[in-house]
Design a protein that fits this description.
Blueprint lengths: L19 E7 L5 E9 L5 E2 L2 H6 L2 H4 L6
Antiparallel strand pairs: 1-2, 2-3
Bound molecules: zinc ion.
């Protein structure tokens, strides 16, 4: 059984950057608004789920032992 603490790692799984920012887009009224899309400040990868960013796609590939 793992003793790892609950993963609160905030780091890009692709490039290792430790921050991201929310993508801003202009809405139909011409106002700049935050969207639901996030973007890594390191590699520029866009994502909507923080887990995607943290895991860097590993979750889709790895077949680690299921519980
Ligand atoms: Zn990145």
């Amino acid at each position: 059984m793992s003793t790892n603490p609950p993963a609160t790692v905030n780091r890009c799984g692709y490039c290792g950057a430790s921050s991201y920012h929310r993508v801003v887009a202009r809405d139909e009224a011409g106002a700049m608004r935050y969207t639901s899309t996030l973007q890594c400040t390191g590699c520029g990868r866009e994502f909507t789920d923080l887990q995607d960013w943290r895991q860097g796609g590993q979750a889709a590939q790895s077949n680690t032992a299921a519980p």
